[in-house]
UniProtKB/TrEMBL annotation:
Organism: Dactylosporangium vinaceum
Residue ranges annotated for the Acetyl-CoA hydrolase/transferase C-terminal domain, each copy included: 252-400
MF term (GO), any: hydrolase activity
Domain Acetyl-CoA hydrolase/transferase N-terminal as annotated: residue spans: 78-167
Protein's name according to its UniProt entry: Acetyl-CoA hydrolase/transferase family protein
Database matches in InterPro entries: AcetylCoA_hyd_C, AcetylCoA_hyd_C_sf, ActCoA_hydro, ActCoA_hydro_N, NagB/RpiA_transferase-like
Amino acid sequence: MRTVTESQLSRVLAGLTGVPRIVAGGNYASPFRLLAVADASIAEFRLVMLNAQPGIPDREGVTHETSFVGPGMRGGARLRYFPCRLSLVPHLLRQRLVPDVVLVHTAPPAGGALSLGVEVNVLPAAIEAVRARGGLVIAQANPAMPVTYGDAQIPVDAVDYLVECDEPLPTHTPTAPDATCGAIGAKVAALVPPHATLQLGIGAIPDATLDALLDRRGLRIWSEMFSDGALALEKAGALDPSTPITASFCFGSAQLYDWIDNNPRIRMLRTEKTNDPGTIAAHPALMSINSALQVDLFAQANASRIGGRTHSGFGGQTDFIVGAMHSPSGHAIIALRSWHPKADVSAVVPLLTGPVTSFQHSYIVTEQGTAQIWGRDCVEQAQQILDHAAHPAARDDLRTAGRRLGLPLR
């Protein structure tokens, strides 16, 4: 590994031939300093990121490639979306989107290793793929990046160039959930059995659910990601102290990052491990709690598209739903508002008109109630959704449309 200045790195990147493919850390650990150097040094390249945030290179000559569209790529004219479960993205990087350069945001080197900190995800697979073809691995080392363990630790000899920086990480301070999210969170929490293992994402509904679980004991976390809700559970004594908190990436407040820094309780693993459905299923009472943009009367969920445009992607939802449904006493829950206040439309529709993100859930939960899905026939499922999940203002139209679809709804 060689420590270089940005101008020295610029000369290295300017020497690349063809149209290189660059894989960069996404979510909230983007190596913006390295991306800026690449943008200024390479006329044309392909950029692969998951959940890319605003501020990434976005101009003629830069093609965006992703399996999970973030706000930095959403709606872009040069976007190539690759539908893919998150657990399979590492295979995609080895077989179809093989990188020429990998850019990572790390903590400074220590003990012969660099820590990927808050973003492990698919980066170990990307590093292996680029090393196999003789490409470059470049690190942006930042003392603000927390040191985490597990697969977050990469040897320094896996990195070709290192650029030092010192800048704050993006943070997110959760706000108190509104009454609707609070009601949804309480209903979801009521479904969580004692000593359950939790998988949740980030947002008002997951935060409200965790708020409603603070008085529990012996809970565990095996998740694609976690945020400040995990810290709140830890402070409340709700988590099993003998079980590590396992995830692939995290995002939250400065207090969260202080807590995870050099904390052996936190185990950050690569996506192939956290999102493997068989591994997920091995955890008893695995409760997979996810959201969606829409659900229909056939209990199908759309979590990826709005108005015919890709909004996000599958992410890990499909991985965890399959794993949870095979877990002993496990369940898969879709939790969402029954009505979209901004669009002023029902979140429950008769039949999805676009691609389905997931299906065969245990429960669909809204502020209206809990629809029991698993083990019911298709008519019972639809009736449960109509009676317990749909907004009252939408029920008459849903009933009429359901009957036209062959569902004899009451």
